[in-house]
Write a sequence for this structure.
C-alpha cells in the first residue's frame, strides 16, 4: 500500500495534519522533479534534524528510513509558498539561534546544544498551538477543511519526520505490527481466572 493511501485511510497520525502541503503530497500523485530543491546546507540540516527526532536504536531511525528525502520532497514540491517560506526561515533560524548561543552553526554544535535549540523551538510551537487551537475534524484531516498554513517551523518539522517515518517501509517492517484480532477472546473463561470480583448470592 502506498503511504498516501495508508494515511488517507487511517487519518489518525498526530491526531490530524496541520500542513496542506503534506495532505496534498499524501493524497496526490508522485512527482519526480523537485520544483524548489533545498540547497546542500538545508538538506544536511533536514538530515540531522530527522536523526535527532527519531534516532536509530534497536530499530531503524529516520535517516535509515530515508525521511530526509521525504521531507525535501514535500517541502520542495508540495508545500504552499507560505508553508515553504516558514520552513526555510525556520532552518535559517536554527543557525541564527546556535550562532548566538554557542558561536557555531546548528550542524557544528554539540548534540546537547542541538537538542536545547530544538526545545526552544518546540516551546514556541506549543505557545502557538495554545494561542491558535485548531479543531480536528475528518474534513481537516483529509485536507478539505481549514488547515493552518501558519503553523510554526517546529510543528511542520515534527509532522514531516513522524509521518515520513511511520509511513516508510523501514518502520512498517520493524515497529508496526498487524493484529487482525487485537487481544484474546476467551468466551468460556471463569470469572475467578480473570481476576474479577466474585459475589455469593
Amino acid at each position: 500500500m502506498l503511504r498516501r493511501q495508508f494515511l488517507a485511510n487511517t487519518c489518525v497520525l498526530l491526531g490530524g495534519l496541520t500542513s496542506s502541503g503534506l495532505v496534498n503530497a499524501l493524497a496526490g500523485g508522485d512527482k519526480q522533479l523537485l520544483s524548489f530543491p533545498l540547497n546542500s546546507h538545508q538538506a544536511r540540516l533536514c538530515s540531522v534534524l530527522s536523526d535527532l527526532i527519531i534516532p536509530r536504536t534497536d530499530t531503524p531511525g529516520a535517516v535509515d528510513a530515508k525521511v530526509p528525502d521525504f521531507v525535501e520532497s514535500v517541502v520542495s514540491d508540495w508545500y504552499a509558498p507560505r508553508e515553504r517560506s516558514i520552513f526555510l526561515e525556520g532552518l535559517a533560524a536554527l543557525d541564527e539561534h546556535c550562532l548566538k548561543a554557542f558561536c557555531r552553526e546548528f550542524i557544528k554544535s554539540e548534540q546537547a546544544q542541538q537538542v536545547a535549540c530544538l526545545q526552544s523551538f518546540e516551546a514556541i510551537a506549543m505557545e502557538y498551538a495554545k494561542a491558535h487551537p485548531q479543531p480536528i475534524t475528518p474534513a481537516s484531516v483529509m485536507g478539505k477543511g481549514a488547515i493552518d498554513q501558519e503553523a510554526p517551523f517546529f510543528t511542520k518539522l515534527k509532522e514531516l519526520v513522524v509521518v515520513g517515518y511511520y509511513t516508510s517501509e523501514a518502520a512498517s517492517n520493524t515497529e508496526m505490527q498487524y493484529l487482525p484480532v487485537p487481544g484474546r477472546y476467551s468466551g468460556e473463561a471463569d470469572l475467578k481466572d480473570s481476576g474479577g470480583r466474585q459475589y455469593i448470592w
User: Anything to note?
Assistant: Confidence is low (pLDDT under 50) at residues 7-13, 197-201.
